[in-house]
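Sequence, please.
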């Protein structure tokens, strides 16, 4: 008899019937003899609804208060699911992040888990009770409620699986596994049987929201096998595990996109030592993650600097940058809110050339302009206008023939 952590996402808990359906799935797993710990998200749309409320009340809602508000979404689902499980004849109890000792740093709205004590979980399991834990939330060392960033219930689940030394963490969602690209955007996307932690980390950090990036980091660090599958059918799903020789050694393994980015361009920036450090130092101090940065060749001692930030951080980043612009005597700020980053990922890129050229050519043939480019050993990303995201993903998927069974790398 082992211990399994199951996590159910928002769509899987979106209605009363779906909550009852989840209770059936938990009951079936329990009947097999395993100990089960369940982690849940808020009902689909609820976190967005709460965020919208906050923005109606305030242009710059305080992050501590945002966390207090958002944490209520998962309180609803833990209680409802525990009730449904009790009704199904099982012993179950709901727990908030605080009650199971999920301790985080104090970076409100994007906190990182530092420690999990899990005493109440051990106690419940000893008494044959199924703990139903609120995902996405924790408390900091002053007992203030924190949240882990959008999609953070995945991280709660994998971190708990690591802390409890569970056999596996099963992520139940609304697609039946990890695909070569988002199956809701590209109908020819192909389901992968297994994905390595490394590749999943790239996919996730480049925008494939099926798993939150931090959850993959936890899985990799503590070697937690993660199965991603659907809560709506019994199809086999995708295992995210350590790389093994049978894994596909293809040049390009998939495409990710991130529509949640914005671009800021500072014009007429004095080209002298210390300026970049000042700009990006202050942005980092505000806990904002800058992704791509491009600095143009300087002309007459002035240059332009463009960079991307998560869309949710745009307002704050723009405030910081306009203050710095004034201080250093730079020109106007240009802001483009609706950009997207489309990325091709594959470990085989290390030893194969030509992927970038083919990517640029494919986008050009669709008339899609590339605003920024960045590359690493195993990925190429292009920033484009957000309205072309789906077109770009589909045409790249087609051009690289990702829907077909892969030909192995020589
Ligand atoms: P949940 O509410 O269960 O956490 P999410 O909406 O956060 O679900 O994540 C699941 C979604 O991730 C899918 O509906 C799909 O649109 C998207 N997705 C993006 N890239 C991929 C991919 N490569 N494979 C599978 N799903 C993907
Ligand atoms: N409810 C949170 C969100 O919508 C956390 C999650 O779903 O994982 O981001
Ligand atoms: Mg999610």
């Amino acid at each position: 008899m082992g211990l399994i952590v199951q996590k159910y996402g928002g769509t899987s808990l979106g209605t009363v019937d779906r909550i009852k359906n989840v209770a059936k799935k938990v009951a079936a797993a329990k009947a097999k003899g395993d100990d089960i710990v369940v982690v849940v998200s808020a009902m689909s749309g609820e976190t967005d609804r709460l965020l919208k409320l906050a923005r109606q009340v305030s242009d710059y809602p305080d992050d501590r208060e945002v966390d207090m508000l958002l944490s209520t979404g998962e309180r609803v689902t833990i209680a409802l699911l525990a009730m449904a499980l009790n009704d199904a004849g099982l012993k179950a109890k709901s727990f908030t992040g605080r009650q199971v000792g999920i301790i985080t740093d104090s970076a409100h709205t994007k906190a990182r888990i530092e420690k999990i004590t899990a005493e109440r979980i051990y106690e419940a399991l000893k008494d044959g009770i199924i703990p139903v834990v609120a995902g996405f939330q924790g408390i900091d060392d002053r007992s203030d409620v924190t949240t882990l960033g959008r999609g953070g219930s995945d991280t709660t689940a994998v971190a708990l699986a690591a802390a409890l030394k569970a056999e596996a963490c099963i992520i139940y969602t609304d697609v039946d596994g990890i695909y070569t690209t988002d199956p809701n955007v590209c109908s020819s996307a192909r389901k992968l049987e297994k994905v390595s932690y490394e590749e999943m980390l790239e996919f996730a950090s480049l925008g494939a929201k099926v798993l939150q990036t931090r959850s993959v980091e936890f899985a990799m660090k503590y070697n937690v096998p993660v199965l991603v599958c659907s809560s709506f059918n019994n199809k086999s799903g995708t295992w995210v595990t350590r790389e093994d020789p049978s894994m596909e050694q293809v040049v390009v393994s998939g495409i990710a996109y991130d529509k949640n980015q914005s671009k800021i361009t500072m014009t007429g920036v004095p080209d002298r030592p210390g300026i970049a450090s000042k700009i990006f130092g202050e942005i980092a101090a505000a806990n904002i993650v800058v992704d791509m940065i491009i600095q143009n060749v300087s002309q007459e001692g002035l240059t332009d600097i463009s960079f991307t930030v998560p869309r949710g951080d745009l307002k704050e980043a723009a405030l910081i940058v306009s203050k710095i612009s004034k201080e250093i005597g730079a020109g106007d700020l240009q802001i483009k809110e609706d950009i997207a980053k489309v990325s091709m990922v594959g470990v085989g890129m290390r030893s194969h050339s030509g992927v970038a050229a083919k990517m640029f050519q494919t986008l050009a043939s669709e008339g899609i302009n590339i605003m920024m480019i960045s590359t690493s050993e195993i990925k190429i990303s292009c920033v484009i206008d957000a309205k072309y995201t789906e077109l770009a993903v589909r045409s790249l998927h087609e051009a690289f023939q990702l829907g077909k069974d892969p030909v192995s790398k020589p």
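The two ends are 42 Å apart (CA to CA).
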